[in-house]
């Protein structure tokens, strides 16, 4: 920062309440009132240097005491005092901080060369040209002070000349940058870097008012010299300098957090920054766009601003990481911690653009890789927000189901998210569990995940049954899974069987189901059904025989019905069992309904497993039966 000292006399001005005067043996004969301050001065030093005072005092005699009101002097009483001290020859220090009010006041008082040689205006112009405009930070400080006197600064050319000086230095090759600048990026050490960073100028201009900052950026962009990434970096630095941070913690909505006036100022800054983002896709990062969108939600920005941010974010969404999309909720009515609505809105914007690019995304390798990357990102996000104890299931399900089927190569990530949610929310209802698990496609689970799912006590029973069915269809016959199924079946309530049967009867039969059912031979099905009947008998048969031999207990009526049902199944030939199974697959459900009624009346774990497996066979094109 450069300074200029003018005058040699000591400062003899003093202030007493609202009166400022000069220590002198000569009584004051000139009283000048500026706003609420009264100056008791002398005609001799002031009038010869001020053309305005010469005109106002022309009608008075030299011996008269003259009183003048100058309430409209630019810069107020402080600027007028600088001009008065110059007239008395008192030492004054000029810098970029006080140049603008002093220059405007001197122009107002007409302290020019036409009035007296070596006048105040000439010295101020020399300081402006040789010191302020030649530096880097000086024109920035001077430009910032013009916001208090915008009309005077504009008319006198101060704003234009400062902007030209700043832009000229920004466009200077980094090898020729020799002036001091501010650069405080995390991890950057000037001593370790010999070369000047390309964005060396961004922090210093971030101190400017948004309108002045816009003028600088517009002037720089008009030259087409700096790349769009540099413009984007300047916008990022300015946003971090002036906009509230909504990424670290949930902002407070109390009355003392932000006044409406400060919010309005922040909204104006946000909308200006959004309007200055270059059209080049790589000019700003997806993380920055998402931060701006989160801030827009917090400030209540206009729909136009939010829509533009969502459009730009949708274009770059595949570049996002998990940390980029983790934002606290901005609505005071939300009990959950994370802004899942923001992620859903950006995902929807991405999908709109994605669907427009190709009607058959699977045939486009780039589009397929893009949507698969988004699928992994969303599943990772679901796993993270599932730990939120206040996260409602509908929001979780809505985001998970927003992705098309092609976005997930497997459902392992989705299963992990569901398992985490059920673990963190042990009190979730049975209906909500069903709604959550309905998203899963058991055919897209890896063998390791299916093995975990079969043993998972948190999952609904029918989910486990269908997982086991696909485990068997894929060739995995690990016997360690079967006792788990039997245990879960014994713990199932009686109505679970009826619900499974009802869903089986109500589900529409889709064309092409047969082609998607795994190819299984008649002999394999016969062996599976016979093995299940043997297991169904062995689970309870031994206990009943022990009870009968001891004679200590009477046969339970329900147990008697189970024996009747078991006898019926055992009396059926393998071809009859095969007919019932294939008849259900092809949609001819009359015989199958009769079988379901028999299974329901028996109410045994064997019956429940049969219904579950048959439901799985019918519904292999579905994500998950209830």
Structure description:
- The protein has 29 helices and seven strands.
- By secondary structure, the protein is mainly α.
- The strands form two sheets. Strands 2-3-5-4-6 form a five-stranded mixed beta sheet, with helices on one face. A two-stranded antiparallel ribbon has the order 1-7.
- A hairpin with a 2-residue loop joins β4 (30-34) and β5 (37-41).
- The two termini are 73 Å apart.
- Belongs to the NPH3 family.
- Residues 199-474 form the NPH3 domain.
- Keywords: Ubl conjugation pathway.
- Residues 476-560 are annotated as: Disordered.
Describe the largest sheet: 5 strands, mixed
Oligomer: single chain
Q: In what order do the strands lie side by side in the largest sheet?
A: 2-3-5-4-6
Give the distance, in angstroms, between the N- and C-terminal Cα atoms: 73 Å
pLDDT averaged over residues: 79
* Number of beta strands: 7
Characteristic key phrases:
five-stranded mixed beta sheet, NPH3/RPT2-like, two-stranded antiparallel sheet, ubl conjugation pathway, mainly alpha, SKP1/BTB/POZ_sf, NPH3 domain-containing protein, 626 residues
Summarize the entry for a quick read.
With 626 residues, this protein is mostly helical.
Could you give the topology of this structure?
Elements: E1 4-6, E2 13-16, E3 19-22, E4 30-34, E5 37-41, H1 43-46, H2 51-56, E6 66-69, H3 76-88, E7 92-94, H4 99-108, H5 120-132, H6 137-145, H7 150-155, H8 158-170, H9 202-205, H10 210-222, H11 228-242, H12 260-276, H13 286-299, H14 303-315, H15 340-357, H16 365-385, H17 393-402, H18 412-424, H19 430-437, H20 447-454, H21 461-473, H22 481-491, H23 494-506, H24 513-516, H25 522-550, H26 557-571, H27 574-585, H28 590-602, H29 605-618
Parallel strand pairs: 3-5, 4-6
Antiparallel strand pairs: 1-7, 2-3, 4-5
Helix pairs in contact: 3-4, 4-5, 6-8, 8-10, 10-12, 11-12, 12-13, 13-14, 14-15, 15-17, 16-18, 20-21, 21-22, 21-29, 22-29, 23-28, 23-29, 25-27, 25-29, 26-28, 27-28, 28-29
InterPro entries: NPH3/RPT2-like, NPH3_dom, SKP1/BTB/POZ_sf
Pfam families: NPH3 (PF03000)
Pathway: Protein modification; protein ubiquitination
């Amino acid at each position: 920062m450069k300074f200029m000292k003018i005058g040699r006399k000591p400062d003899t001005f003093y202030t007493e309440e609202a009166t400022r005067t000069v220590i002198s043996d000569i009584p004051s004969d000139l009283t000048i009132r500026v706003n609420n301050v009264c100056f008791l001065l002398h005609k001799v030093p002031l009038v010869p240097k001020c053309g305005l005072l010469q005109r106002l005092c022309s009608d008075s005699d030299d011996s008269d005491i003259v009183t003048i009101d100058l309430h409209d002097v630019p810069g107020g009483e402080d600027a007028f005092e600088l001009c008065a001290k110059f007239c008395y020859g008192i030492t004054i220090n000029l810098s970029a901080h006080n140049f603008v009010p002093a220059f405007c006041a001197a122009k107002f008082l007409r302290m020019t060369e036409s009035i007296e040689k070596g006048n105040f205006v000439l010295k101020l112009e020399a300081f402006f040209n040789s010191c302020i405009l030649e530096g880097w930070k000086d024109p920035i400080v001077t430009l910032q002070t013009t916001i208090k006197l915008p009309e005077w600064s504009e008319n006198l050319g101060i704003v234009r000349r400062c902007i030209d000086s700043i832009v000229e230095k920004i466009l200077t090759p980094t090898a020729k940058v020799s002036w001091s600048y501010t650069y405080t990026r995390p991890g950057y050490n000037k001593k370790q870097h010999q070369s000047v960073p390309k964005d060396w100028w961004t922090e210093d201009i971030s101190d400017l008012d948004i309108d002045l900052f816009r003028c600088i950026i517009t002037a720089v962009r008009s030259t087409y010299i700096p790349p769009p990434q540099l413009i984007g970096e300047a916008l990022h630095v300015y946003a971090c300098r002036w906009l509230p941070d909504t990424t670290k913690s949930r902002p407070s909505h109390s009355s003392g957090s932000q006044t409406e006036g400060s919010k309005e100022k922040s909204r104006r800054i946000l909308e200006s920054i959004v309007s200055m983002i270059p059209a080049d896709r790589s000019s700003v990062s997806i993380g920055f766009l998402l931060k701006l969108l989160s801030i827009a939600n917090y400030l209540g920005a206009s729909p136009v601003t939010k829509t533009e941010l969502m459009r730009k974010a949708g274009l770059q969404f595949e570049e996002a990481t998990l940390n980029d999309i983790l934002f606290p909720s901005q609505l005071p009515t939300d009990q959950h911690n994370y802004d899942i609505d923001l992620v859903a809105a950006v995902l929807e914007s991405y999908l709109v653009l994605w669907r427009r690019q190709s009607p058959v995304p699977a045939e486009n390798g780039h589009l397929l890789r893009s949507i698969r990357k988004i699928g992994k990102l969303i599943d990772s996000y679901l796993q993270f927000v599932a730990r939120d104890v206040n996260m409602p299931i509908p929001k979780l399900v809505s985001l998970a189901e927003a992705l098309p089927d092609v976005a997930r190569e497997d459902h392992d990530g989705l299963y992990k998210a569901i398992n985490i949610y059920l673990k963190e929310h042990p009190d979730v209802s049975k209906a909500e569990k069903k709604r959550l698990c309905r998203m899963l496609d058991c055919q897209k689970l890896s063998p390791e995940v299916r093995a975990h799912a079969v043993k998972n006590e948190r999952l609904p029973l029918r989910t486990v049954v269908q997982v086991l069915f696909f485990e068997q269809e894929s060739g995995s016959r690990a016997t360690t899974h079967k006792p788990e199924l039997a245990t879960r079946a014994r713990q199932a309530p009686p109505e679970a069987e009826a619900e499974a049967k009802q869903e089986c009867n109500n589900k529409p039969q889709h064309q092409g189901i047969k082609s998607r059912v795994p190819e299984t031979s008649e002999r394999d099905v016969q062996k599976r059904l016979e093995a299940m009947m043997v297991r169904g008998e062995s689970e309870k048969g031994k206990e009943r025989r022990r009870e009968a031999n001891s004679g200590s207990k009477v046969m339970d009526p329900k147990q008697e019905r189970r024996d009747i049902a078991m006898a019926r199944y055992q009396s059926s030939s393998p071809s009859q069992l095969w007919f019932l199974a294939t008849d259900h697959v092809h949609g001819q459900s009359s015989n199958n309904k009769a079988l379901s009624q028999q299974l329901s009346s028996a109410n045994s774990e064997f019956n429940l497993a049969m219904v579950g497996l048959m439901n799985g066979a019918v519904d292999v094109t579905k994500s998950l039966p209830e």
